[in-house]
Each structure stands twice: as structure tokens, then as C-alpha cells.
Specification:
There is one protein chain. This protein is of the alpha+beta class and about 425 residues long. It has helices at about 5-40, 40-65, 75-95, 100-105, 110-115, 120-135, 145-245, 250-275, 290-305, 320-340, 385-395, and strands spanning about 305-310, 345-355, 355-365, 395-400, 410-415. It has a five-stranded mixed β-sheet, covered by helices on one side. β2 and β3 (about 355-365) form a beta hairpin. α2 runs antiparallel to α3 and α7 packs antiparallel against α8 (about 250-275). The longest helix is centred in the middle third of the chain and has 102 residues, at about 145-245. It is rod-shaped and about 160 Å long.
């Protein structure tokens, strides 16, 4: 409620308190002057008694009425009784002198706060009867013209007061609706603040969980990167040095030592690359097809097995993460072939097929039962589980087909994501 509304309510409260006193005094003064000129002492004494009764009634109500300033006061039985008795006194006073209609008009002022519900209209009608009768000349009427005038004045008085009462009730209803709306908005704001606080807490929790999941995933990725680079390089170096120890020919031993040194330099480059961004060294200057071709060639030279690399479909520049994933899978598959399959021949095929890329690695080794393979090998390698994790990280799938004595085929299918244009 605004300051203007509060001030208006205070003034209306003062009018309801002191208005009846003022109208009773004005009516008494005007009626007393006219009574001295036209009426006898008996009527004057009766009117005096009624004025005293009206003043006593007003003083009683002044001390009894609830002190609740503001519009929308709740009617009570005491207020209704006060209204009825006051109307009766005003009716009798206008019977003796029509000038007491000023006092009778007080019924228009406070019917809304004294009479409940539909009875309010009846109270306004009763006050309109008293005022219209006084305006017609006072009761009793002595001619049909007075009755006709009374009927017209009654319709006018009651119609105006009913219209004012209706407008007042509508305004009160709007005020109540506004108050209800404000209360609901306050509750909604409180609920919204609580929801925002809960969302903020939930967001913080999700961020924390995502950070933990990211850290765990990054640890797994780092472990796989180290396994696919440094560990494989060291394995190759050890294999070359073991051959050296069993080779009496110094010239041939020198070749194996050169291969070991080459693998050592390659592993060192991979280690430095892993520290920087974990991207394979082979992809630093070449695309995936070239890197796979060199990887297959190096593997064939190192193991002495026959190896072929084939590219089918229109070659595309793949996203760096996609290229690194497929290269690591090929390296791991070829490493498994040399360590476990004892194959004499291997083939690697890279296929660009519409919206996906397929990498196939096949060998003619001794094969195995895929269902019997553990997730991690006894030597600490990641094996098929590591390749499958890499493939799933880029929304791909890994398929392994193998049978004891009939070789192995590994196929990785990933969505084709192109390298962003600069």
C-alpha cells in the first residue's frame, strides 16, 4: 500500500468517526430553529430526547468500534446493531422534522463496514427511504403527489447509493486481488531464489564431478599414451639388443644396434611430444595415411614379417584426435602381433567410407579366443581393452575376430570428423 493510500484511509477513518457527530449537530441546529417557528413544545421535547439518544448511541459506538484503520473493515454484529438503531432514531427524527435528513444520510457513509453481504443493500434501501421521505416533505404524506414524488426520489437515492456501493465493492475486490497477487509473487520469488540456490549448488556439484571424471579419464589416456609410445619403443629396443647378444657377426649386430638407436630416438621424440600435447610424432608433419604407411614399414623392417598398407576411398584430412586414435590403435595391434601372434604376414587397411573411417589390421598368426582374453595382460599392457577404450572415446566401435590357429582381425570404426579449417 502506498503512502497516498494510507493517507486516504486515515481521512476516511476520521470521516466515519466524526461525520455522524457533525451531521447530527447540523440537523439539530436547523431543526431547532424551524421547530421554534412551527411546532409545539411537546414535539420539541421528543426531538430533544431522540437527539440525546442519538448522541449517546454515537458515544457508545465511538468507544466500542474496532481500531483498525483502512479499507475493507470486517462487519460485526455490534456494527449492524448500531446501524439499525441509528437508522430507527433518524427515521423518527425525520418524522418530526424533515431537516434531520442530514443525520439520516449517515447511513450512506458506513454501510459497507457495518453490514455484511447482501444485507448491505437493505441497509442502503432503508436509509434511502428515510432521506427520500424527508426530501418529499416528511411523513406522513397527505396527497398522491407526495407519494409519487417519494417513489421517484426513493428510486434516485437508492439507485445512486447502490451504484456507489457496487463501484466500492469492485475496488475493494481489486485491492484484495492485488494484495493476493503481491503475496503470491513474493512466495514465487522466494521459491525462485531457493531454486536458484539449489541449481547453483547442483551446478557446482556437477562441475566438481565432471572435473573428477575428466581427471580420471586423462589419467587413463596418459597411461595409454605412455604404453603406446615409450613402452612399445623400449620393447622394440630390448628385442633388438637381445638379437645383438645372440649374433656373432659384428656387421649384422651393428645393424640391430642401429635399429635400436633409431627406436630410442623415436621413443625420445614420442616422450617429448607426450609432454607437449600427447600427439604422435608421426603425425607432426604427415597425415594419417602417410603416418600409417611409415608405421607399417618400420614394423615390417623391425620384425622381418611381410606387411602391406592400403588406403581405399577419397582421403580426407581427419581431426587430430581422430588421427592420433587410429594411429595408436594400429601401433598397439601391430605390437600385439609381433609379441603374441608370431605372424609371418600382416595387412593394414584404412578406408574412408562416407561418414565414417574404418581401420582394419589382419595377421596370419596363431590367433586366440577373444572371450578368454583378460582386460589387461600380465605384463601390464593395455591390449584390446586399451584399443577399445580409445575407440569409444571418439564415439567409435572396435571389433575383434580371431580363432586359435587362424589369425586375428581387428577393425576400428569411427565417425569421420574433418580437420577444422584455419
Amino acid at each position: 500500500m502506498t503512502a497516498a493510500d494510507t493517507q486516504l484511509d486515515r481521512r476516511m477513518e476520521q470521516l466515519h468517526i466524526w461525520g455522524p457527530y457533525g451531521l447530527l449537530g447540523v440537523s439539530a441546529v436547523l431543526a431547532a430553529g424551524s421547530t421554534l417557528l412551527t411546532d409545539g413544545p411537546d414535539e420539541w421535547r421528543i426531538a430533544g430526547v431522540l437527539v440525546a439518544a442519538a448522541l449517546a448511541l454515537q458515544l457508545w459506538w465511538h468507544g466500542t468500534r474496532p481500531r483498525r484503520p483502512g479499507r475493507g473493515r470486517t462487519p460485526s454484529r455490534a456494527g449492524t446493531a448500531y446501524y439499525v438503531v441509528r437508522w430507527a432514531i433518524a427515521f423518527l427524527l425525520t418524522w418530526f422534522n424533515p431537516l434531520f435528513a442530514f443525520y439520516a444520510a449517515t447511513g450512506y457513509m458506513d454501510a459497507d463496514e457495518l453490514i455484511p453481504g447482501l444485507w448491505r443493500r437493505l441497509g442502503l434501501f432503508a436509509s434511502a427511504v428515510t432521506v427520500a421521505a424527508a426530501q418529499t416533505g416528511g411523513l406522513p404524506f397527505h396527497s398522491g403527489g407526495q407519494w409519487a414524488a417519494f417513489a421517484g426520489l426513493l428510486v434516485v437515492n437508492f439507485g445512486l447509493q447502490a451504484l456507489v456501493a457496487h463501484v466500492t465493492e469492485q475496488e475493494e475486490q481489486r485491492s484484495r486481488d492485488r494484495a493476493t497477487t503481491i503475496t503470491e509473487l513474493e512466495h514465487a520469488n522466494i521459491a525462485l531464489r531457493q531454486a536458484l540456490d539449489e541449481n547453483a549448488a547442483l551446478h557446482a556439484q556437477l562441475v566438481h564431478q565432471a572435473r573428477e571424471a575428466g581427471v580420471a579419464d586423462e589419467r587413463r589416456r596418459l597411461a595409454a599414451e605412455i604404453h603406446d609410445t615409450i613402452a612399445q619403443g623400449l620393447t622394440g629396443i630390448i628385442a633388438q639388443l637381445q638379437v645383438v647378444t645372440n649374433t656373432p657377426d659384428r656387421t649384422q649386430a651393428g645393424e640391430y644396434i642401429d635399429r635400436a638407436m633409431k627406436l630410442a630416438r623415436h621413443s625420445l621424440g614420442e616422450a617429448r611430444r607426450s609432454v607437449q600435447n600427447l600427439a604422435p610424432v608421426a603425425l607432426e608433419n604427415d597425415g594419417l595415411p602417410e603416418a600409417l604407411k611409415k608405421t607399417v614399414g618400420d614394423w615390417a623392417e623391425r620384425t622381418g614379417a611381410r606387411a602391406e598398407f592400403t588406403v581405399t576411398g577419397p582421403v580426407e584430412q581427419l581431426h587430430a584426435e581422430l588421427s592420433a586414435t587410429l594411429l595408436r590403435i594400429a601401433q598397439e595391434a601391430l605390437s600385439n602381433t609381433s609379441r603374441h601372434a608370431h605372424a609371418s604376414r600382416a595387412g593394414v587397411t584404412l578406408t574412408f567410407l562416407g561418414d565414417e573411417v574404418i581401420l582394419d589390421i589382419r595377421d596370419d598368426g596363431k590367433g586366440f579366443d577373444p572371450l578368454a582374453v583378460r582386460e589387461r595382460t600380465g605384463t601390464g599392457g593395455f591390449g584390446l581393452d586399451g584399443m577399445r577404450a580409445r575407440t569409444e572415446r571418439v564415439a567409435g566401435t572396435l571389433t575383434v575376430e580371431s580363432e586359435p590357429g587362424h589369425g586375428t582381425a581387428v577393425s576400428a570404426r569411427v565417425p569421420l570428423v574433418l580437420l577444422p579449417r584455419p
